[in-house]
Structures are given as structure tokens and as C-alpha cells.
């Protein structure tokens, strides 16, 4: 039941090339950081405070990004083995073990250059308990200060004044002073506001890109392609002119694809057919990312929306960084990341995606490493089927541990699932 | 190694109390809670997931706080397993099993403290499975400045009290909360007495016995538990006890999921005197008494006690403290010769903490070994052999090597 394979090579869009340059430049800057006297802050993607970091002329390093890059470059298996050899349990998060293993193996970053040691560990504790342990582990390895931002969880999908105040107070009294001490200068609130304005603009364009998937065919893949789209805004570039230029360019490319009624780019070139529209919950597997993607694209399945692409910020429910209220808006950003939402809110969001994007099915990729995502997903599956009447599929893999990617097993499951969707479509049509 | 008298042997003045403690711990129909509710019409029983819940707050608003530890090794998990992937720890399975089988129907509310992502998400599952029942996520602060984390936590406590008030709990009253704090402090005093006796004379009070006596408090009000512990202490002091040449160990597992009782007995049978532990961590989550000054807002006192005197656990951010320092202090204070790490399988907090604690012990040349369990583990032979080899090695060579 495979669709016809596109034989055209997968040409890179201008926005992709721009992103590649941005990332290379960033890692290049990181590699020179120590000799140039630049200070480096390690922090996490969800709840990242990039505008603040950048306003103080500091350079961010995001260990999850390094881990996933190591996964894509087939390095994570050895790093994980290194960490397990040092006593880390096989049961725990493989991002953590990959990072620890990478550090023990010389801390060579994704572009092949050595990453600088941190001058500060900024623990943005948002939506993932493991973050806390991760930086406790790194604290044992690096001789640098740690500052913690405790972001309350949203069990009811509601940000209260108390939650916001708690986060803002921590920013004012602990996080900003800690960043200023490392930077050796005071925060310029005007510069922060300027950066938040840039964030706002990039966020508008990103949301337009996400929502373009309402078209038929969808011009984007909102999961596999989506992880590239979120790259700049979830990592080191939110609040920069570079990010604004990237998202503006990306949006123009996507608009053009809509105009031409083109589907998304896949690892094998342009998608030739949109047979199934899917919503995906859960992070992707990184060790076999392109194999995994092809399991969808070769069956004519396009992912029209996904929750993983919302872990670093949930912009399509209306949130934007607000230069008028810098700290409140940073607090709301941190509080609103996807994994910081209670299961009922997450389910509601998925239901909305399935309906709004007219999905034929939804799939949960349950990753062993991430309890924040995974615990409760089987209930979410049942609930979504009940609420939407759309059938769900369930597969299991891992983030960066190649031992947990059973290619044949996952492929079989996906094919069976899509055969079922196909049969269902036939029934609906008849 | 030696087999020592089992809990509640004939002629033991503490036997009857231990039998009662075991019954209270094992009773998955929560008979004691039913009895309490029958004796206190209109009052609420509020369950909470491990590790910690502010019991004095609940008592102050007329509720019975009940530690719902899970199904242990007595519950066949049938439906619970269908809600979780194989790599999720065991305790949420048994919680869901208890809930969907109706065993938790008698509870008027359920609290889910923020100890890990699994229990956090379990709170969300509860809301989806039982939308009409009261369930609340209790966000324990990870910032320990009283003006930041303390104030936030006091707000959380008010929110919980308010939510339960809507379900029929008494309004939060300062005097009632002061009294509840005093009662909790008294309970803590006698628990410490129990710990001290067990540590000083582990042949007189075995860890397995202390475990049961402490755990019985999970379904009792503070006063009732205090009385029970005192009765046990009196009985234990009257016991005829024989000294054994065992190795003195501390158990560390960041216990949310409780080990099967058989596991504790197995470690004892393998020649280990467990002189300190963190089995029922919630009862000791605040170190020392809750300080309550004259005229102080008692809610503020409760919140301050948590942020300023919270015991270091795997679920609590280390902050400015030194990782492993509290464990080393525990070992030294208990005059222990080694540490056994016993973490629940797939327990992120415990397992992520463990390498740091092991490193700290290595620096101090304190022997240690580690094992994993599930609350329903039924085979202990391997554990007995491992613990036996560990205790022999420590006895013979003073190290686990």
C-alpha cells in the first residue's frame, strides 16, 4: 500500500539552510566563548529564558538539544553506555545519561567542537521532574553556581495570580541577580522588552506555519518537519533578529506551498500524496529519526499537528511574549509549556488538534525515557477515541537509546494501523 | 546470617500491638477509615499519595488524612496494568486498581503531592477517571526562601483547605491548626523515640516492627498514633531480647512505593540490623518539630517548617546543600557500617539520586550495595543472598569489596 516514491532529491529550502547556518554560528561562538571571555549558561528548552540570557550577553547551551543531536548522529548509544558504566540506572531518562556520557567523553558538541563548561546552571524546572535531578548531577561535575526557577504546574489548565507572582518573584529576586552576577552587568529592561517584541513577531509566524496544516494537502509535516521548525525558537534564538528572519522566510515558503497546493518535504523529497492526516502525541525517536519519518511518509501519512512541538512553548492557544509586561509574560511562557499542563488539559488540546486539523487518526509515540509525557498516555488514548470517534494508535520507543527502537515492530504496528485507517476510509466513503 | 524471632512471637508483650499494626497496614478495605467515618459523621477522609502531605492542616479542618501507599503484595493488578506502559513504576498501577475496584470510594478527596512526574500525571488521571470526586495536586515548593517558596506553599495549603471546605470540611481555623500542629509534633517526638530505641537496641525493636508501628499511623489521627506508639514502646522495653551480631545498615530508597514487608524481613534475616531508613518518608519530611511561635500564623509556621526544615530527599531540590551529606550524617549518627540502596524499579527520583549518593559514600569509604524491588516483589532469595554477602563482607573486611 506504499504510495509512489518521489525520486527527486530532498532539496533544502532557503529557511533550512538559514537555520543550519544559525546553528553552526552559535556552536562556533560557543567554541570560542572561553577565549573571548563570553559566559555560558546551561538551561533547558521548556521554560527557557533565552531573551533574558541574551539580554545579558550570555550564551545558552541546551543539554536536551545536545542529547537529541547525539541521537541523530548515532553517538548516543555509546554515551549512554558510558553513563551506565558509571552507575546510572538503565531505568532512567536517556537524555540525562546521554548528556553525562557526552561530558565524560570530552563534551564534544553536535558540530564536533568542544562545548564550553557552564558559568551558570539555570535550572528552569518546568514540566519535567527529571530536569531537577539532571542539574543536580551536573552540579556535581561542574564548579559553577546553580540557580533554580521553580515553575508551578498547571493541574487545572489555569494560571493563577499566585503562580505568576511566585515565578516573577523568583525571577526578580534570584534568577536575574544570578544571571547579572555571571554577566557582570545589570539587566537592561529596554533591551529585554525589545527582544520580547522580536519573540512576538517570530511566534506569530510560527503559529501561521503550524496552522497552515489546516489546508489540504497540508504544506507541512507538523511533527517530523515540525521539529526543524521549532529549532530556532525553542533553542538559542528566541528574541533575536535571526529568528525573526528565519520564521518570516519559513512562513513565505509555506505560503507558497499552500498556493501551489504542495505537500510537505519528506526525507525522500516532496510528499506526493496526502493519504492520511495524523496528530501525534509524544516526542520522536531521534536515533532512527529518518527511518521513523519514512514509515509515515511512504504510507502517505502527514502529521498535521503534534504536541511535542509545543514543549518549548504553546503559542497556538494565544500566548505571545509581551514587551509591555516582560516578566509576567516570561512567567506565563514558562507556566504554559505543554508538559507543564495537567493531563485533562493535554487531552483537551489533543482533541482540539484532531478536530481542527481534521485528522483521520492520532498516534501516541510513548517514549520510555519520559514519564512526564508517558505516564497516563493510555488513558489519554481511550479518552480521545471516546471524544472524537477517531481511532488512535500506540507505539513505544525511546528518545536517544537505540536499544529501544524496534524498527520492525514499530513498522509493523504502523502499517497495521494505517491499513485499518485505510479500511475505515473505504467504509466511510461507501 | 541467622534467623531471628519473627514479629509478634508468642509471649512477646508487643505481639498484640504488632498484629494490630500489621492488620492496619495490610487492610486494603480501609476498615479503620470506615470506623473513623462512622464515629465522625459528616467528616471527610482524605487520602494522599506518598510521600508527603500536610497532615496537621487536614486534621485542623476535621479530616482524617490517610496515606494511601498502594496495593503492596496483596493485590492482583488486573485493570491497573492496562493504564500503564511496562516501564512505569508499580505504585500507580496498584493505585488505579484500588480506585477502579471501588476500594477508594470511601475517600472524600485525594491529594497528589508533587514528588515525580508519574504521581503528578496520576493526579490528572484521577481527574479524568473520577471527575466528580475531589482530587488536588499539591505543588510542594522547590524554592526554599520563606518569602518565595514559603508564601507560595502557604497559598497552596489555603487552596487545598478551601477546596475541601467546599466538600464539607470545617473552615480553616487558626486555633484548630495550632492544636493540630502540637499533636503532630508530639507524634513526631514519640516516632523519634521509637527510632532511637530501634537504633540503640535493634535486637529489641526490629526495623520490620518499627516499620509496622510507624505505618499504622497512615490511617490514624496523630493522637491515636501517638498513643499506639507509646504502648508499643512500653511493651518493647519489657521484652526479653537477645543481642545478635548483625551488621548495622541504613536503608535508602526514597520510598514512595513501599517495599514488600517480606523484603524488610529478608534483609533482617540476611544479618542486617536496619538502624535507620527512609521507608515512610512522609512522616519525617520535616526535620524536628514544626516551630510555632506565640502569635504566629500557624499556616505560615507549617509552610516555613517545610521550606526551612524539610528533610533532604530525592524529590526535593538539593539547593545549597551538599549531596549525600545528610546520608553520611545519618550513617554516622546511627553508627551504621554500611548502606543498602533499595529503589523501586523505574523510580526516577531514587534512581537518579543514587549515583550521587554512592559517590558521596565512596568518598567517605562507607560500604554500600544496591537492589531494586516492586511493591509486589515475591521472590527474595536473590536479595537475601546479596544482602547476606554484603553483611558478611562488611563484618569480615569492613567493606563491600
Structure in words:
The complex is a heterodimer of chains A (430) and B (401). Helices cover 50% and strands 11% of the residues of chain A. Chain A is α/β, with parallel strands linked by helices. Chain A has 2 domains: 14-190, Rossmann fold, CATH 3.40.50; 192-429, 3-Layer(aba) Sandwich (Rossmann fold). In chain A, strand 7 (276-281), helix 12 (289-297) and strand 8 form a beta-alpha-beta unit. In chain A, helix 7 packs across helix 13. The longest helix of chain A is centred in the middle third of the chain and has 23 residues, at 161-183. By secondary structure, chain B is α/β, with parallel strands linked by helices. In chain B, helix 5 links the parallel strand 3 and strand 4. Chain B is globular, with a radius of gyration of 20 Å.
Give me some keywords for this one.
heterodimer; A: alpha/beta; Rossmann fold; 2 domains; four-stranded parallel beta sheet; 11% strand; B: 401 residues; alpha/beta; globular
Output the structural class of chain B. alpha/beta
- How large is the share of residues in beta strands of chain B? 5-15%
**What oligomeric assembly is this protein in?**
heterodimer
Percent range of helical residues of chain B: 40-55%
C-alpha Rg of chain A, in Å?
21 Å
Largest sheet of chain B: 4 strands, parallel
Task: Give the number of helices of chain A.
Answer: 17
Secondary structure tally: strands of chain B: 8
Compact overview of the structure:
With 430 residues, chain A is α/β, with parallel strands linked by helices. Chain A contains 17 helices and 10 strands. Chain A has a 4-stranded parallel sheet, with helices on both faces.
Topology:
The complex is a heterodimer of chains A (about 425) and B (about 400).
Chain A: H1 14-32, E1 40-42, H2 50-55, E2 59-61, H3 63-72, H4 76-85, H5 94-104, E3 120-125, H6 129-141, E4 146-150, H7 161-183, H8 189-211, H9 226-229, H10 231-234, H11 241-259, E5 265-266, E6 269-270, E7 276-281, H12 289-297, E8 301-306, H13 326-335, H14 343-356, E9 361-367, H15 371-374, H16 377-388, E10 392-397, H17 407-429
Parallel strand pairs in A: 1-2, 1-3, 3-4, 7-8, 7-9, 9-10
Antiparallel strand pairs in A: 5-6
Chain B: H1 15-26, H2 31-39, E1 45-48, H3 55-60, E2 64-67, H4 91-100, E3 109-113, H5 117-129, E4 134-138, H6 146-166, H7 174-200, H8 207-216, H9 222-238, E5 247-252, H10 261-269, E6 272-276, H11 298-309, H12 325-333, E7 338-344, H13 348-363, E8 368-373, H14 381-397
Parallel strand pairs in B: 1-2, 1-3, 3-4, 5-6, 5-7, 7-8
Amino acid at each position: 500500500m506504499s504510495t509512489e516514491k518521489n525520486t527527486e532529491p530532498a532539496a533544502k529550502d532557503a529557511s533550512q539552510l538559514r537555520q543550519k547556518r544559525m546553528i553552526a554560528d552559535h556552536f562556533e561562538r560557543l567554541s570560542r566563548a572561553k577565549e573571548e571571555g563570553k559566559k555560558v549558561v546551561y538551561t533547558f528548552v521548556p521554560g527557557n529564558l533565552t531573551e533574558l540570557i541574551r539580554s545579558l550577553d550570555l550564551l545558552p547551551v541546551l543539554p536536551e538539544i545536545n542529547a537529541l543531536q547525539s541521537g541523530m548522529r548515532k553517538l548516543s548509544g555509546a554515551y549512554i553506555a558510558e553513563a551506565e558504566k558509571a552507575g546510572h540506572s538503565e531505568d532512567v531518562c536517556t537524555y540525562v545519561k546521554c548528556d553525562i556520557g557526552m561530558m565524560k567523553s570530552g563534551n564534544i558538541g553536535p558540530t564536533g567542537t568542544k562545548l564550553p563548561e557552564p558559568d551558570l546552571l539555570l535550572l528552569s524546572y518546568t514540566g519535567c521532574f527529571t530536569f531537577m535531578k539532571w542539574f543536580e548531577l551536573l552540579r556535581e561535575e561542574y564548579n559553577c553556581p546553580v540557580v533554580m526557577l521553580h515553575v508551578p504546574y498547571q493541574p487545572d489548565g489555569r494560571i493563577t495570580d499566585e503562580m505568576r507572582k511566585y515565578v516573577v518573584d523568583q525571577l526578580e529576586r534570584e534568577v536575574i541577580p544570578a544571571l547579572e552576577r555571571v554577566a557582570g552587568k545589570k539587566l537592561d529592561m529596554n533591551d529585554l522588552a525589545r527582544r520580547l517584541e522580536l519573540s512576538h513577531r517570530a511566534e506569530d509566524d510560527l503559529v501561521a506555519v503550524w496552522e497552515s496544516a489546516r489546508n489540504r494537502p497540508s504544506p507541512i509535516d507538523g511533527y517530523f518537519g515540525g521539529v526543524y521548525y521549532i529549532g530556532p525558537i525553542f533553542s538559542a534564538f528566541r528574541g533575536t533578529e535571526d529568528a525573526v528572519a528565519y520564521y518570516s522566510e519559513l512562513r513565505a515558503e509555506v505560503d507558497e506551498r499552500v498556493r501551489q497546493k504542495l505537500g510537505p518535504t519528506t526525507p525522500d523529497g516532496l510528499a506526493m500524496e496526502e493519504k492520511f492526516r495524523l496528530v501525534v502525541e509524544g516526542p520522536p525517536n531521534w536515533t532512527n529519526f529518518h527511518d521513523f519519518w519514512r514509515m509515515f511518509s511512504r504510507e502517505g501519512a502527514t502529521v498535521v499537528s503534534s504536541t511535542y512541538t509545543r514543549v518549548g512553548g504553546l503559542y497556538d492557544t494565544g500566548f505571545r511574549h509581551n514587551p509591555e509586561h516582560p516578566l509576567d509574560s516570561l512567567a506565563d511562557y514558562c507556566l504554559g509549556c505543554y508538559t507543564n499542563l495537567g493531563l485533562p488539559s493535554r487531552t483537551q488540546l489533543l482533541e482540539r488538534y484532531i478536530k481542527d486539523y481534521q485528522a483521520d487518526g492520532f498516534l501516541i509515540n510513548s517514549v520510555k525515557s519520559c514519564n512526564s509525557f508517558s505516564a497516563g498516555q493510555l488513558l489519554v488514548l481511550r479518552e480521545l477515541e471516546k471524544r472524537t470517534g477517531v481511532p488512535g494508535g500506540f507505539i513505544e520507543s525511546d528518545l536517544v537509546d537505540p536499544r529501544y527502537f524496534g524498527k520492525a515492530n514499530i513498522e509493523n504496528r504502523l502499517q497495521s494501523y494505517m491499513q485499518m485507517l485505510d479500511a475505515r476510509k473505504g467504509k466511510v466513503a461507501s | 546470617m541467622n534467623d531471628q524471632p519473627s514479629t509478634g512471637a508468642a509471649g512477646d508483650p508487643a505481639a498484640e500491638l504488632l498484629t494490630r499494626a500489621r492488620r492496619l497496614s495490610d487492610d486494603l478495605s480501609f476498615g479503620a477509615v470506615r470506623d473513623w467515618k462512622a464515629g465522625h459523621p459528616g467528616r471527610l477522609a482524605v487520602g494522599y499519595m506518598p510521600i508527603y502531605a500536610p497532615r496537621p492542616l487536614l486534621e485542623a479542618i476535621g479530616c482524617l488524612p490517610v496515606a494511601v501507599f498502594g496495593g503492596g503484595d496483596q493485590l492482583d493488578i488486573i485493570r491497573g496494568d492496562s493504564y500503564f506502559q511496562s516501564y512505569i513504576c508499580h505504585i500507580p498501577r496498584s493505585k488505579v486498581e484500588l480506585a477502579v475496584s471501588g476500594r477508594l470510594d470511601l475517600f472524600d478527596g485525594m491529594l497528589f503531592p508533587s514528588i515525580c512526574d508519574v504521581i503528578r500525571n496520576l493526579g490528572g488521571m484521577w481527574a479524568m477517571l473520577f471527575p466528580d470526586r475531589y482530587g488536588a495536586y499539591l505543588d510542594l515548593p522547590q524554592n526554599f526562601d520563606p518569602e518565595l517558596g514559603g508564601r507560595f506553599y502557604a497559598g497552596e495549603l489555603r487552596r487545598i483547605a478551601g477546596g475541601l471546605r467546599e466538600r464539607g470540611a470545617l473552615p480553616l481555623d487558626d486555633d484548630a491548626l495550632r492544636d493540630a500542629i502540637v499533636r503532630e509534633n508530639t507524634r513526631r517526638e514519640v516516632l523519634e523515640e521509637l527510632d532511637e530505641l530501634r537504633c540503640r537496641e535493634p535486637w529489641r525493636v526490629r526495623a520490620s516492627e518499627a516499620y509496622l508501628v510507624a505505618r499504622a499511623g497512615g490511617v490514624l489521627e496523630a493522637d491515636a498514633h501517638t498513643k499506639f506508639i507509646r504502648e508499643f514502646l512500653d511493651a518493647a522495653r519489657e521484652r526479653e531480647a537477645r543481642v545478635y551480631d548483625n551488621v548495622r545498615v541504613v536503608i535508602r530508597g526514597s520510598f514512595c512505593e513501599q517495599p514488600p514487608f517480606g523484603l524488610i524481613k529478608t534483609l533482617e534475616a540476611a544479618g542486617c540490623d536496619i538502624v535507620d531508613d527512609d521507608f515512610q518518608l512522609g512522616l519525617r519530611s520535616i526535620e524536628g518539630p514544626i516551630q510555632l511561635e506565640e502569635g504566629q500564623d500557624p499556616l505560615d509556621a507549617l509552610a516555613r517548617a517545610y521550606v526551612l526544615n524539610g528533610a533532604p530527599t530525592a524529590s526535593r531540590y538539593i539547593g545549597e546543600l551538599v549531596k549525600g551529606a545528610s546520608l553520611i550524617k545519618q550513617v554516622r549518627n546511627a553508627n551504621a557500617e554500611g548502606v543498602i540502596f533499595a529503589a523501586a524499579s523505574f523510580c526516577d527520583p531514587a534512581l537518579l539520586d543514587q549515583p550521587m549518593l554512592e559517590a558521596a559514600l565512596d568518598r567517605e569509604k562507607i560500604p554500600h550495595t544496591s537492589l531494586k524491588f516492586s511493591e509486589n516483589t515475591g521472590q527474595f532469595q536473590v536479595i537475601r543472598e546479596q544482602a547476606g554477602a554484603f553483611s558478611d563482607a562488611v563484618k569480615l573486611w569492613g567493606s563491600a569489596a
